[in-house]
């Protein structure tokens, strides 16, 4: 992991035409790994607790968050988390009764109590850890040399074996590649393909809103779909009725022959 951090940051620095001090970079990478190890050992939930869902649903307003976890600046965190979604940000911060769902309140309390303690983590390491997490999440888009990869696990996707009898379902084909493009149109096509692949329902909603923008057009669509569904159901009814009638006539014919 240390080598991965060093390699990723060097590639990022090359895009900015910067030359990093390798000794400082190595030490920062070691500190990031050590901090990540500390979080995994002391601030992660065990499997038994994960099965209890009370820890996952704890509604709090932003005032309650600020009072419960004062070492975390929620008025700074929320705008950073929402990014460029200004309408969402306005609703979140403009409504004092808006409820945030807090997961792991016990672990969050532990982190809140330790933040600001230099024996827990230095400010430099904490900032490096947060920003490196962002860089690593988007490292596929860096201009990696052909012989290198941003991560040895980047091309793998988690999958679970099916439970019960295997179903013959054609596997979904991934039609995009997360990488750096020099051509803008190729980048846009790939971005659109990724959103369709990862957010199918959101994309369907955007498509419907674009094709049927008014309420009248949606009512018309609903009526047309209802007519098609009704014709299918009526057709199935006639097929079943005809089959039953044919069976009755066959029985009558057999009885007459006897």
From TrEMBL:
- What transmembrane ranges does the database entry give? none
- Peptidase M13 N-terminal domain location: 20-228
The identity of this protein, by name, is Peptidase M13 N-terminal domain-containing protein
| Pfam family membership, one | Peptidase_M13_N
Single GO biological process annotation from the record: proteolysis
Signal peptide from the UniProt entry: none
